[in-house]
Design brief:
The protein has 134 residues and is an alpha/beta fold. The chain has three helices and eight strands; from the N terminus they run βαβββαβαβββ. The protein has a four-stranded mixed β-sheet. The protein has a four-stranded mixed β-sheet with strand order 5-8-7-6, with helices on one face. The chain is globular and about 45 Å long.
């Protein structure tokens, strides 16, 4: 049962699919379950459970009646995707190679966890991604 999973609402569906298809294949060997460009929908499962869904922002704004509101996001992030990886430095390099933008370089974060290492990046839509290893 897919009890809880992230669904990113994206403006540029094709660019987002290309980024996550390459990134998830490269970092975790995961392929999309389906990519439906006509529906602006794509999803990836991990071990039989929903891992990530992309959905076109225009479709959801029409469904919930917010099409007339500005697209500009809040000044500070309100969510992020977290990916656990074996090697934060290598994963950050690989994601930047797929088009992510590094915003906080790989670094140890002992205040967050004794052996935690993180890097923070933005995907092509500007969504915040944290890479982490323990």
């Amino acid at each position: 049962m897919d009890a809880l999973y992230p669904r990113l609402l994206v403006r540029d569906f094709a660019a987002s699919v290309a980024f996550y298809q390459a990134a998830l294949r490269d970092l975790h060997g995961v392929e999309p379950v389906k990519v439906l460009p006509e529906a602006s929908y794509a999803n990836w499962d991990i071990d039989g459970q929903a891992g990530l869904v992309l959905f076109g922002r225009a479709a959801i704004t029409a469904a919930v009646g917010t099409s007339d509101l500005p697209e500009t996001p809040a000044a500070q992030d309100t969510s992020m995707l977290v990916m656990r990886v074996d090697d934060v430095d290598a994963a950050a390099t690989r994601l930047t190679g797929h088009g992510a933008r590094l915003v906080a370089p790989p670094q140890d974060r002992p205040a967050w966890g004794p052996t935690l290492r993180t890097a923070h990046l933005r995907d092509p839509e500007g969504n915040l991604i944290e890479l982490q290893s323990y």
